[in-house]
Structures are given as structure tokens and as C-alpha cells.
Amino acid sequence: MTNESILAVRHVTRRFGGLIANSDISLEVRRGELLGLIGPNGAGKSTLFNLIAGTYAPTSGEICLDGDDITSLPDTKRCALGIARTFQVPRSFDSMSVLDNVIVGALVRRSGANQAREQALETLDFVGLATRAAAPAVELTPPEKRRLELARALATEPKLLLLDEVMTGLTPVEARKGVELIRRISDRGITIVMVEHVMEVVMPLVDRAVVLNLGKVLAQGHPKDVVRDESVIAAYLGDRHRAT
Amino acid sequence: MTELTLSRAETKSVASSIAEMRRFEILKALAIFALVAALPIIVHDVYLQNVLILTLMFAALSQSWNILGGYCGQISLGNALYFGIGAYVTSMLFVGFSITPWLGLGLGGVLAAVLAVVLGYPCFRLKGHYFSIATIVIAEIGLLLVHNWDYAGAALGIQWPVGQDGWTTLQFARNKIPYFYLALGLFVVTWFVTFFIEGSRWGYWWRAVRDNPEAARSLGVEVFRSKIAAAAVSAFFTAVGGGFYAAFVGYIDPDSVMSFRFSLLFALPAVLGGIGTLWGPAVGAAVLIPLTEILRSYAGGSGNGLDLIIYGGLVMLVALAKPDGLLSLFQLMGRGRST
Amino acid sequence: MTSAQPFLQVLASGLAMGLIYALIAVGLSLIFGLMDVVNFAHGEFLMLAMYATFGLFFETALDPIVLAPLVVAIMFVLGISVYAGVVRYAMRAKTNPGMVQIFATFGLAILIQGLAQYFFTPDYRSIPNTWLGGKTLNLGGVFLPWPQIYGGAISLATFLGLYLLISRTDFGKALEATREDQGAVALVGIDRNRIFALGWGLGAALVGLAGAVLAIFYYIHPNVGGTFALVAYVTVALGGFGSIFGALVAGIIVGVVEALTTLILPPALKSVGIFTLYLGVLFIRPSGLLGRL
Fold it and tell me: Is residue B323 in some structural domain?
């Protein structure tokens, strides 16, 4: 990890009608870092995630990748620049095979299907889905579908990988495998921003955590410091109170 | 870790075995085309030859529809517009200016492709049923306009002159076999175009757009451009088919080439045979067109509707019972054999 | 006679016809809003309702106005049967569900057309000597045929009834809940299948009522559905799929614009006006006037 920033979010605000989902958010992601984006329900994590991925544009503020302003670029272009993402609810290409799903991702950097196929197979192997390459994506189990999402995103050879609640709904055993896989991706030098609702999953894994609450950055820093932060505890306690 | 992993060499070998399979697919196709090409040796009956020509023509037209509808998932129910453009451009150039239909086929195709791109800009903002219904309406407007276009013969249509038989005029009054090979040629071309697109970046993009546009976008797929490209290719070959049909029947009028019935007839074989597959449109056409002709001749001749009952019932039944199309039956049989 | 008279005349007959178009279209929109299915046999439902009116008239010699409730009841049963026998299975498809629905209902449309030809012959029929047939109301120089006035009034009353049904009854609430979120419905414990079946019954009953009206002043033949089906699809898309009041507004617009077009273009091109308007609106608002995305 270096101190050089790969992604910069500056004074980003996003409104949905009268609702302010993100309010004047600024944060930096360092190259090679594994960053956790956490916060209680409705904190604005998903909105921020989608703003970085380019699903929609911020109402104001700017987003830079490697120093270049990408605020107005659509998601397609951002993928070409090296931002890849997964979806909270996996969105596989269900009528296509697992391999073909990943080839779609690999084709961003390769124009020929044959090279893309080799790249896709390697990626499938990396995430542990190589034996399912020929299966139709629709037949995968939910944890396998999450792996497929990861493989597809990795096949685009991203500099920055955005993971949207990839651990949700996994059994403890599957979650452990997931954590191990994310570590291996990080070891490849890919910068990762992962959104998670459950702190227990992310905290041991990430280098740094950013806590959002009510659309604002509440705290950021080393996971150990963040979990001890009074305001963070209050926000999560408040969330639990609301939930019960 | 219990997952099996592959070595780099294994990855390469899996990849190359897939390439091998595609080469085999070409050989299989060539063998099938050769067998079909030999059919006129045993089929001498003019009526049957006619049925064969129509079957091949609709297989080609349905393959063209399949490119946009099957692979890219945009259900057009207005392809009769492009069919009509091909038929009218070819007919008007030949009848009015004695320009060879070969040129008309190409010009009609290009014109249709350009129109598809122009119409695509507004239409592809529409989703699902909104898109399908817009295509019906646009084709209907085209039909209404041609109906009232005096220069193109309005409701009376255009009659091709008789007595200039030959390959430059595409007129064969005494012997239908050349039309058979033209229709076969058209199908072979659309098949290979589909085959090569299927293995290319466009093919992957189109299927991704069909299955999940949001996910596709996140993987760098140009969704809008994909749809426009598919529409242009689809329209081009539909118009070439229209030009061929005009030369084949020698007489066209608005309703005989641009009615909604045609739009449906381009979609149905693909749906029946297997949508978004290489052989689906051909299998569907091979079942549907002979059946249509037989029903028309034997059951529906008196206008008692029996042909429609069987036809409609069959379409409904296949849609419900075999949503993957008839082709999936063959694949099941194939799987049964190999295991 | 003022110069505005022909204009008023066109406007009035356009308005009446527009209300009838709205009545034809609303069932289609209702079914779509409920379950995202476009019934491509909608025109054939209309045709069957017209034949039902004709057949009942033939048997009982009662006026179509009296027969309308009976036709509505028959169509209600037909709608439920089509759901139970066809649509329910079409919705189960795992691959290409949209495609399966389109072609299952298209197949049904062709089948119904064939059956109509087989049993009723392709001949054109009409119901002679009805109470309203051929009678015209003179409103200060603007002439309106009574059947159209009757149709317009029935249509308005139906929309009022639909409004009450949706806002006041349990069925309406269940309908609304299913429209909003199909998953939530299962949680609340509403039987989806029953709501869908009732929705199809209601949708068919509505187009049945329109058929009972049209049978008074329109020729009845196996292909009559196609004439109105396209107008119904345009109306629904213009108003926004699933929107009941979108259908009313769009129906009126379609009726009036169609009538106005005849002032400018030859009658053969009267549909060009509504088609162009429809495309224009859709390109600006892809989900129709009152539709949700």
C-alpha cells in the first residue's frame, strides 16, 4: 500500500427528490488499500457506492480516479477506466454459461473471444469456479453466484474493485472462504472498497474503515479505532434500537 | 480448499477445445447445407419446391429477426417494415428503371439498416412491451403510407414484367430451382453471419444486454450501441429477404409484403425452434412453413378457420410446453445418446 | 350555422369514440399493471364479446343494452378460464418469460380467430333494430349518434366504478398491493393466484362491456378484434401501462386526435395522427403519460 490516492471523492452530495442520501462526503482511497465502507441501514452506503460505480451522477461534488475527473462518466466508461463492481443481489446473465458470463467481463480489454476465453477461465479458476465453467449460470447456488459476480468483475482487470455486501446471506463457512478470496484479490494489488452492513465481517479484514451515518462521514480510520469511537457505537446502537 | 484448480496448460486446453467445437459446428453446418442443396434432385413437384423455397426464405428471415430478438432480446414485431422496404426498393428499381434486382437487394438492405439506426435512437429508450408495441405501430404507419403512395402503385402495388428470364433479372418463370438456391444462399449467409457474431464481442455483448442490461453496463458493455448494431444487421437481411420475395412472386402490394402477419411470421419460427440459437429459426421454419402451406391447401381452403385453429393451438402449446423451443428436444435426445 | 360547427362536430364524436376506446383499453392496462403481462388476445376478447352479444340477441331477441350484464358475466368467466388454462402456465416459464407470454397469448389470439371463423363463418353480421341503432341526437347543430352517447356514458360510469372498486374494497386494496410489489403480497398473505384470476376476469369483463356497446353499431366478424386491438395497445402505452386513469385520458386523446386528423388528412390515413402522437409522446416520456417506470 502506498500513500498515493487512487480514488478521490470530493464534497459529493446526492439528493433523491427531497431526500438527501449523501451530504458533502469527501474521502480518499489509497492505491492497494482494502477499504471498508460501513454504517447502519439508510446511512447512504449504497448511494455512495453507486455514485463511485457511475450508476448515477452526484447532485454536486466531484469524483476522481487517478487524478482524472470522472464525475460525468457513465458506468460503462468507468469500467473501461478500471472500476469494477458487484451487485448486492447477484445479476448473472442467466441464459449464458458461467464461462460466457465471465467472458463478457474479459472482453473489455480484449477484442478477440479466444483470448477473452483464456482470461475468463483463469479468473474462474482463481475464484474456485473452474469446474462449473460449462454450467448455465441460472443453475448456480447463491454462494456460487456471488463468486461468479466476483469473477466477472475481476475479468475486467480493474484497478479498483467495488464489492456491495458480498458477505450477506453466506453461512459462516462460506463467509470464511469469501474472506480468504477477498484477501487473495487484495494480494494481487487490486484496490478494494467493500460495503458491508455487518461490522463483524469487515473489521478484521480491512485496512481502514469509513463509517457513514445519515448520509455523512461519521468516522474513519483503523478498524480498531473506529469500533471504539463513541459516535459510531451510538449510531449502531441507535440502529439496533430502531430495528427492534 | 477443496475446489479443483486448473493449471495454465489445462486452461489453454479447455479454451482450445471450445474453439475446436466451433470448427466442428461449421463442418456440421456445411454438411447440412450440402444435403439441403441436394434436395431438388429428388423433389420435382413444383408445389413442394415452392414450399421448400418459402421454408428457406422464412428460415433466413427468422434468423435475421433472431439477431435482434433472440440474441439481443429486443422483441421487434415490426420487421415487416424492413421486409417491405426491400421488396419495394427492389421492385421499383427493376420495374421503373430496369436496374438489376441484385443492386436493389443491396440498396434495400442498406436503406433498411440506415432506417433501423435512425428509428433505433428513439425506440431503444423504450423498454419491454413499450418497445414491441412501438415497432408494431411504426410498421403500421409505414403500411399506411405505402398504401397511399401513388408513385409506388398505392394499394394496387407493383407488377414485375414477364419475359426477361435470367440471373441478372432474377426472373425464372418456367423453373423454380434457381429461387431455391437463392433462398438457400440467403439462409446460409444469415447463418454464417449469426455464427461469427455469436463468437465475437458483439455476440457476447448482445446476450449480456438481453439477460441483464444493468450488469452488462457495469462490465463495460455499450448497451445502446449493441442494440443499434443488432437492429441494423437484422434490418439489412430482412430487407434482402423482402427483395428476394418480390423477385420470387413477381407482384407486390402493401398488404402482401408489409402487413403485421409478416412481422409475426418472422418471429414465430425462431420462437418455435429455439430463440437465440443458431438452428432454432431453421427448425421452426421447417415445421411451421410446410404446416402453414398444408393447412392452407387442405384445411383452410374453404375459409373455415381450421388452419388458424391448428396453427394458433400449436404456437400456444409450444410457447407453454417447450419455452426453449423444439430445438431443445433434439438436444435432450443428443444428451440421452451420449450418456 | 357558425364556422366552428364542423370543428365542434368532430370534437364531440371524437370524444364519444375516445371514451369507448378507453373502455376497450382499460382491461388490458389493468391486467398489465397487475402482473406485467400484455394480453395479445385482447382484440379477440372484444370480438368474442361482440359475438356473444349477437348470439344472445339471436336467441332472446332482447336489446344489447339489456344483454350487456350477461355478456360481461360470460367474459368474466372466460377471463378467469384463460388465466387458469393458459396464462398461469405461461408465467411459470423460467427462461424467456416475457417471450412465452407474448407468444402464448398470440397463439391464443390466432386460435380464437380460427374458432370464430369455424363456428360463426367469416360473414359480416350486425344486430338489426336495436333501441339506439341509427338514432341521432341533435345538439344545436352537432349530431351525435345515440349508441356512441350510450357507450361514452357507460365508459364514464365504468371508470367511476373502477375508482370506487380500487379505493374502497378489499379486492381493490389487494389489487393495488399486488401491483406495488408482488413479493410483499405473499408476505401479507394475499393469494396471488386468486387475485390474478380475478384480475383477468375483471379485465375480460371490461372489454366484454365494450364489446356489448360496439355490437350495437359496428359490424361483427372474426377479424374485428384486430381493428381495435392496435388502438387499444396505443392507448395503453400512451396512458402508461398499468395506469387505469392513464387509459381514460389516453382513450379520450386518441378519440379526439383521430377525429381531428380526418379534418386534415384523407380518411384512409386517420390513424396516422394517433400513431404519430403516440410515438411523439413515448419518445419524450418512455413510460407513457401517467405510467411509472
Answer: no
Check if the beta carbon of residue B161 is closer than 8 Å to that of residue B172. no
Q: For residue B111, tell me if it sits in a domain.
A: yes
Residue C30 carries which side chain, given as an amino acid letter? L
Which residues of chain A neighbour B11 with C-beta distances below 8 Å?
Answer: 118, 121-122, 125
Q: Is residue B25 part of a domain?
A: no
Name the strand (E) or helix (H) holding A60: strand A60-65
Name the residue with cell 398491493: C177
CATH 2.10.260 fits C5-284, yes or no: no
What letter does residue A71 receive in the DSSP assignment? T
Confidence of residue C19 (pLDDT cuts 50, 70, 90): very high
pLDDT digits (tens, 9 = 90+) for C77-114: 999 999 999 998 888 877 667 778 888 998 999 999 99
- Longest Cα pair distance anywhere in chain A, in angstroms? 54
Domain boundaries, chain C: 5-284
Distance of alpha carbon B326 from alpha carbon B317, whole angstroms:
11
Mean pLDDT throughout A97-110? 94
Half-sphere exposure at residue C252, Cβ-oriented, CA atoms within 13 angstroms: 14
Cell of C6: 364542423
- Which pLDDT belongs to residue B339? 32
Computed over every residue of chain B, the mean pLDDT equals 88
- Using one digit for the tens of pLDDT, what is the confidence trace for B269-283? 998 888 889 999 999
User: Structurally, how many domains does chain B consist of?
Assistant: 1
Beta-carbon contacts of residue A149 (< 8 Å; ≥ 6 apart): A86, A87, A90, A91, A92, A166
The pLDDT of B294-309, averaged and rounded, is: 75
What are the percentages of helix, strand and coil residues in chain C, rounded to 5?
Answer: 75, 5, 20
ipTM of the complex: 0.90
Task: State which amino acid sits at residue B69.
Answer: G
What is the rounded distance in angstroms from the CA atom of residue A125 to the CA atom of residue A181?
12
Q: Which residues of A touch B215 (CB under 8 A)?
A: 87, 91-93, 152
Question: Is the model's pLDDT at B335 over the cut of 50?
Answer: no
**Chain B residues closer than 8 Å to C222 by CB:** 305
Question: Which residue out of B11, B205, B212, B218 would a mutagenesis test of the A interface target, given it has the greatest number of A Cβ atoms within 10 Å?
Answer: B218
Q: What is the pLDDT of residues B95-132, one digit of tens each?
A: 989 899 999 999 999 999 999 999 999 899 888 888 98
B133 to C114: CB separation less than 8 angstroms, yes or no: no
Q: What is the pTM of this model?
A: 0.89
**Distance (Å, whole) CA C252 – CA C19:** 6
B220 contacts on A by Cβ (under 8 Å) = 76, 79-80, 105, 107-108, 156
Report pLDDT for B336: 43
Tens digit of pLDDT for each residue in C202-214?
999 999 999 999 9
User: Across the interface, which of B122, B306, B320 has its CB nearest the CB of C90?
Assistant: B320
Point out the residue among A80, A94, A114 whose CB comes nearest to the CB of B211: A94
Cβ atoms within 10 Å of B304's Cβ, excluding its own: 16
How many angstroms separate the CA atoms of B290 and B270, rounded?
A: 15
For β-strands A208-213 and A216-221, DSSP reports them as antiparallel
Tell me the longest C-alpha to C-alpha distance in chain C: 64
Residue in C5, C13, C14 with CA at minimum distance from that of residue C253: C14
**Residue with the larger pLDDT of the pair A244 and B22:** B22
- On whether residue B155 sits in a domain, the answer given is yes
**Do C150 and C216 contact (CB within 8 A), yes or no?**
yes
For B132, which residue in chain C has the nearest alpha carbon?
C102
> Which residue among B129, B138, B308 places its CB closest to the CB of C38?
B129
Residues A160 and A149: their CA atoms lie apart, in Å, by: 15
Q: Which grid cell is B167?
A: 440471373
- Residue C122's pLDDT band, with cuts at 50, 70 and 90, is confident
What average pLDDT does the segment B86-96 reach?
Answer: 94
pLDDT(A238) > 80: no
